[in-house]
Write a structure and sequence with these properties.
186 residues; 7 helices; two-stranded antiparallel ribbon; Rossmann fold; 7 strands; alpha/beta; single chain; 5-stranded parallel beta sheet
């Protein structure tokens, strides 16, 4: 029925955009509704987008080696903003140097990330893990949609007026703000 929404972007001052676009196309083809924030995205922008779109997961990319610095406190910000159950994935070249991946993974899991991926991960495996994690944390998509629709109908009936949906804002790869044109939904 409804597609699960995920937020995607490249954190911090990292401007690697090609891989980010590939991830957007891949996860869209896997049946997710992808909100791609582009490059040079702050933690606050990820969180705001997740709140605005009722996203189930945030997928953070970092290729320039400073992911460890850029991701400090990310889970705490999510909790502070009421996103306790959101799924956090991070992947890429997350640290500078030749640190063994097991050490990198442990660091990011301690920071609150649910899963940590190296740059050459099999994306099909990531998509399957994401579907599994969403199902475990939130249940099936169709059940959530029915419940959400019932809640919205109940709210409209009690207020006797349509509920405001707000404006969804996405970012393109040049970091310009724009209203969505519907081209990301399939």
């Amino acid at each position: 029925m409804g597609k699960d929404t995920i937020i995607l972007g490249v954190i911090g001052l990292d401007c690697h955009s090609v891989g980010n676009k590939i991830l957007e196309l891949f996860f869209t083809s896997e049946g997710f509704k992808v909100v791609n924030l582009g490059v040079m995205v702050s933690q606050q922008e990820f969180v705001d987008a997740a709140i605005e779109t009722n996203a189930k997961a945030i997928l953070v990319s970092s290729l320039y080696g400073h992911g460890e610095i850029d991701c400090q406190g990310f889970r705490d910000l999510c909790i502070e903003k009421g996103l306790d159950p959101i799924i956090l994935y991070v992947g890429g070249n997350l640290v500078v140097g030749k640190t063994p991946f097991s050490v990198v993974e442990e660091k990011f899991k301690k920071m609150g990330f649910d899963r940590v991926f190296h740059p050459d991960v099999d994306l099909k495996q990531v998509a399957e893990l994401l579907k599994q994690d969403i199902k475990e944390k939130f249940g099936s998509s169709s059940k959530r949609q029915v419940t959400k629709d019932q809640t919205n109908q109940s709210n409209r009936n009690s207020q006797n007026k349509p509920q405001s949906q707000g404006s969804q804002i996405t970012r393109n790869n040049q970091n310009d703000m724009k209203e969505p044109n519907g081209s990301n939904t399939k």
